[in-house]
Structure formats: structure tokens, C-alpha cells
Amino acid sequence: MVANELINQYKALPKAFNYIGLEDFPDRLNFLFTVTVLLVCCSVVTVRTYVFHPLACYIPNMFGSGTAGQELFVNNYCWTEGTFAVHPRQFSIDATQKDGGLGRYRDKRITYYQWVPLVLGVQCIMFYLPRVLWNFITNQRSGTDVAHIVRTVRDAIQADREKHNKLMQHACARLEQLLSRSHQFSHYSALRSVQQLALNRFGLVLSTQPQGNTIICSYLAIKTLYFINASCQLVIMQRFLNLNNTEYGLFGLRLLGDLSSGIYWENSMVFPRVGSCAVYMKTAGVGNWQMSQCALPINMINEKIYIFLWFWMVFVASATAISILVWVVRIYSHGHRRSSFVKQYLKLADNYNQLRNNPWLKKFELEFLRNDGTFLLKMIALNCGDLACTEILRRLWIRFLRSNGVHKAEETHGDQGVSVKNLVVISTAGLPEQARVKKPKLLLQPVTHQPPAEPSAPPASEVDEDIGLDVEDKSANQKRRRLIYQRSISTTT
């Protein structure tokens, strides 16, 4: 399953920069861009290793005939057994010893270049596994594909008016279903009181469901896995390349410094271009150790790849750590609580002064949205923009009021998404009787007018024309209706 997803990601590289989902940019750095970089590096090394010749070894001709088979044997032997990071001038064989005296070069043996393609492939999987786990959590625990909601909102932004409204309604319905399911589950949680006490006393979230923290706590856990993985990759690369001494603790910086200072592999013997190999050959019942000099052109590629990967991993780990801190601040700091976030977007409504004192607003924040709803809205804002988040929030607000019997809301199309006609609020718990707005913001229950019973009354369409007009426009409209009224009287008489 993971391999198939990696292949699909590789095929979809041209669309990588347009990816939209339930992740922010540091998340995409881990599972999308880093996986892409590792796949490219793995492809280059694999081609150089298995299509071309990764090393070429020389050995004196022992038989005085063709050396093609002998060279092939030596190349394969040194490739599988490994070479030694010792210059041929300093390498020697002790024929009196059983192992040829190779024990003193044990710590100089190079065996990593055979495994570079495989290790790079494993690194790809390690960076993608948290994404698989995140998809499993959002689908299984929430009961719906949450990332699909974000993608639907993004598609709605680019759609025409009719399709825009349908997609927005679909996204809001899925969000409402998700939040309602989590809310119903929270009523049956035995840890509700304990969690509330811990939240009030210590600011801790012990469980996920009662406060609506299922998705958000899982998201922070996945981000932590991304950070741990990126940090461990630095250690794994250092161990894999046998750079265990303290001199190459930050081997990326040290190798780059060596290159810029003119210190080449002959002095450092890191990623050597030339190595030594000892081959045991037995002829006519007598075995002898033969020294072979090997050129390792593959290490020129490996050196550049691992210097780049070291700096890339540091960048990814740093970006992920900063992202974790930012999300913790967004969620739990006093300046970024749910009420601040909701009011920030509701301020765009003309009747915000009435909404901020609305007794239903607090219930909407604490019982309907909660932490998961706020998190999803933040993700929509990050991936789709503030305008899309504002429209989704208003539609959810309408649905919430409608479900509680406070409003009978109706949505229509407008150039800006949700438009407004007469904004009438049913009087409940101190809510205003009627509110009017200038700009098309939000549509609640439109006022309907019956046709006039007598000719003396102006038409209903004329009565509605002054909705949302300024004082001067209303005066002009009233004069016009007076003229219509006088004409209707003269026509009747």
C-alpha cells in the first residue's frame, strides 16, 4: 500500500505544488517535497549503480591471457565484499596471516555504497508513513475524509456561481456531520469531568473527545512524528556513512567546509574516489592474496547527494519544530482562542455589533465548533484563503441557528458567494427583531410581502427597494413612491 502511494506521488510530481489537503506547508515539506527529493536521488544512484559501472578495479594479469573475466570477477568481488578507505600507497597485505593482515583496516572498510539506493528508498517510506497514519486517523476516527472537505472548498473557489453554491453546501454539510458526530460521542465520555478539571486547572488536554480535540491532538502527534523522523534521519545518515567520530558530528557542514577549503578526499578519506581491495585467489591448490586498486566514481555522486540531504533534513526538522510551536500557540494561547478566531471572521458582517453580543454565539463556539471545528476552519483558511473560510463559517453559523430553531435561513447565490436580502431575526433570547445590511454578506429569512389589496398601496417590489440603501437614496425612493401612489389614485378615480 505504501509503495503504491509512493509510485502515485512520483507520477504526480507536476501537480505537487498545487496539492491541497488537511496539512500546512511544513507537513508538505515532509511527506511531499522530501519524498520527491529522496525519490530523485534514489533514481540517480540506482541508475548509476545498476545500469552503469559503480566501480572499476585493476589487478595485475596473473595468467598471461585475456583479463576480461578476471576483471569482472574482481569488480564483483570488491563490490560485494567492500573496499577499504586506504590509499593504495599505504595499503599492504601480510601473506603470513590467514586474513592477509586485513584486520588492521577493519575500521576503514567501506560498505555503504552498495546500500545507498535501498537506504534512500527506506527514507522515503519513513517520511511518508506519518502521512499514511494521518489519513487513517482522519478517516477512521472522524468517520469522513476530512481532507476532502478542504479540497471541496478549494474547488468551489474556482467554480462558477451555481457549482460554487453546491460545493459550499456539500462542504458545510460534511463539516456539520463531522462536528455533530464528535459532539454526540462526547456526551457519553466517562472522563468528561476529569478532562474539564485538568483543562481548567493545568491547561492540559487529557482526552480528545469531550472538548472536541480528536483531530487536533492527532494532528499535533503526527507533527511530532514528522519532527522525530527528520531528526533521526540526520543520525541515521551519519551512522550509515561510518562518520561516528566527533570530528564529523555535523558532517554536512564539515564536508562543505572541506570542499570550500580545498581539503579533498585524500586527506579526509570521506567518500574516497580511490580505494583498496584484497582478493583471495586460489590456483593449483595454492591460495594467494592479491591487492587491487579500485576507482569509486559512485562516491562523487554520493558525496553531493548526502551534503544536500543533510542541509535539507536540518531545514525540514527546523520548519517542523517551528510549525509545532505555532500550532500550539494558535490553539492554546489566550490571544488565539476559539472566540477570537470566530469573531475575527464574523467582523466582516455588517451586523457584527449585534452578533458579538449574541447569546447563541458562545454556544456556537463552545458546543458546536469546539477545538476540532476551529482547527478545520484554520486549515481551510491556510489552504483556501480567508474569504473561503469566512463563507464557510457564516454558512455553519446559519446551519447552527437553524438546527436550534432560532433562524429559518435561506441561502441564495450572489457575485460574492452568499448574498443578502431582508435580514430578519426571530426574536429569541434577546435577539433583535430586524437588521438590515448594506453589502451582500449573509442571508437569513427574507421578508415576503403580499400583493396590495387596494390600488392605494404601492407594489411589493417597490417596498423592498429601499432595503440596504443610504439615507439620501431612501428619500429619493420615497418621493418616487409618492408619485406612483398619486398616479394610482388618479387612475382609480
Say what oligomer this is: single chain
pLDDT average, as an integer? 73
Helical content (DSSP H or I, runs of 4+) = 55-70%
Poorly predicted regions: 185-195, 201-210, 408-472
Which sequence of SSEs, written as H and E, runs from N to C? HHEHEEHHHHHHHEEHHHHHEEEEHH
Tally of DSSP helical segments: 17
Q: Could you give a quick summary of the protein structure above?
A:
This protein has 493 residues and is mostly helical.
Walk me through this protein's architecture.
This protein is mainly alpha-helical. Among the domains are: 2-135 and 228-324, no CATH class; 460-492. The chain is 58% helix and 7% strand. It is built from 17 helices and 9 strands. It has helices at residues 2-11, 25-50, 68-81, 116-140, 146-157, 161-186, 192-202, 214-240, 251-261, 265-268, 298-332, 338-346, 352-355, 359-384, 386-403, 460-463, 471-492, and strands at residues 56-58, 83-84, 109-110, 274-283, 286-295, 413-414, 417-418, 423-424, 434-435. A 3-stranded antiparallel sheet has the order 1-5-4. A two-stranded antiparallel ribbon has the order 2-3. Strand 4 (274-283) and strand 5 (286-295) form a beta hairpin. Helix 6 crosses helix 15. The protein is elongated. Residues 185-195, 201-210 and 408-472 have low confidence and may be disordered. InterPro entries: Innexin. Belongs to the pannexin family. The chain crosses the membrane at residues 31-52, 112-134, 305-329. It is found in: Cell membrane. Residues 447-475 are annotated as: Disordered.
